[in-house]
Amino acid sequence: MRIMTSTRLRRTGLMLGAVLMLTDCTVGPNYQPDRMTLPSGFTEAEHDATADEIARANHEMTQWWAEFHDPMLNALVAKAISGNYDLQVAGQRILAERALHDEAVSAWYPQIDANTTNGDARYSINVDNWPIRPGNPQNRPGSSYLSYGVEATWEIDLFGRIRRSVEAQDRVFDQSIESRRAVLLAMLSELATDYVTLRATQLQLKIANDNIRVAQDALDLTNRLYVEGVGNTLQIAQAQAELDSQTAAREPLKTHISQLTHAIDVLLGQMPGTTEAQLKVYQDLPSVPGFPATLPSIVIANRPDIRMAERHYAEDTARVGVAVAQLYPNFVIPLSFNPNASAMYQLFEAGALSWKFLMMASVPLMHGGKYTAQIHAAQAMAEASRLTYRQTVLKAFKEVEDAMAAWHDDEEHNALLHRAAVDSATARDRAERLYGAGLIGFLDVLTTQRSTLNAQNLEALARLERLRDAIDLYTALGAGWRGVAVTNTTLPVSLESQNVLARAIRQ
């Protein structure tokens, strides 16, 4: 009996050794990055960037918001990075994916559980051929039952099913990192856009207040001329209507300013109105940064959506291997040790021992094409991910080219509108002097006032558009996420305090 048991154990050990020697037979395709041919430069670039310009641009794009030279914007960005809730949520998803990766890795290790059973059982005696159990004769259908033991199972990853699953989960974890970077970029872009829009709206409010003063001066002049017998009531009514119109146009600007401050507070992770008093203090628009020197490779290296699409392609490639592995034999080693008896002292006797140590293998034979269909589906998904990656690259280059084109076109547009605003203000001043001298009618004054207001507002919007062009270009280049660490915030629950075994055993 002892010799037979030893022989069986040796045979099982040899089988296990043979299987372990073959554990490098990972099936399925190995991931190969999809190489796209990039252009030598952007068509909308000012010139071919030198190595020094590229190095300087890379440094500037790490904290591109600093290139606007606005201390308030820098302070807001710092608060948003530490307080924005969307960014913190994205960070928690990274931690969750890391835990899921560890869960996938656990399939490599033996799964072991302890168990115990204690109680009484009664069996029916109204069944034909009632079996006679040791220690439980037919006239005693009830019995006490005590048992303890260990159940274990270990899957031998011979053909790489677990390995490919872990590889796929690795890529999902990488995607969560890129997703957080994308959230960071979107948040920075939104914050900077809201901030420059706030300053532009404040400039429009200043223009409106200046024009209200001009309209009030025109009304005062019209009243004086009427008293002197030069003017008439029609001119007074026109001047009053213009003043009322200018005053009414100011109110929506105030509302927009309040809404922008509220939006900025939410991006900072604080209640709306927290920084309203501070932000409502008038400040001129930030300066427009210099045009950044860029290379096409910067887009590929920095854009989180491109990096995420590439990682998704790698994940789907690994899942092809998971599907292929289902066509191959699966090896599992089950182990159980379960002594049982009716009395406590009997549990540790040789007769109470019950154990099992096997090598189990299963081979798929016929499943109506299920596994083949799963492989075809995984291959199609991987190819779709590769094509999505290519499309993402194309869209990214389009966004960069569009932002560069807008930068150059709006620069000239801004210069022309500035000249128009200056000329309109000059014409308005001259019209008011001529009207005061009685050389022209009040309608000419109204025309020049409205033309000036329109030109000044258009210039303010053009300056805003120039700043947005810069923000859009930096965002299209994928700038700003480097050097921002993930905030590791977790619920106040200690694993070790939940289970004493967790202190000593990896669970």
Automatic annotation (TrEMBL):
One Gene Ontology molecular-function label: efflux transmembrane transporter activity
Alphabetically ordered keywords of this record: Lipoprotein, Membrane, Palmitate, Transmembrane, Transmembrane beta strand
GO CC term, one of those recorded: plasma membrane
Pfam families documented for this protein: OEP
Membrane topology: Lipid-anchor
Aminoacyl-tRNA synthetase listed as a keyword: no
InterPro entries in UniProt: MdtP/NodT-like, OMP_efflux
Organism expressing this protein natively: Ameyamaea chiangmaiensis
Name under which the protein is recorded: Efflux transporter outer membrane subunit
Protein's cellular compartments: Cell membrane
Similarity annotation: Belongs to the outer membrane factor (OMF) (TC 1.B.17) family.
Main location, first listed in the record: membrane
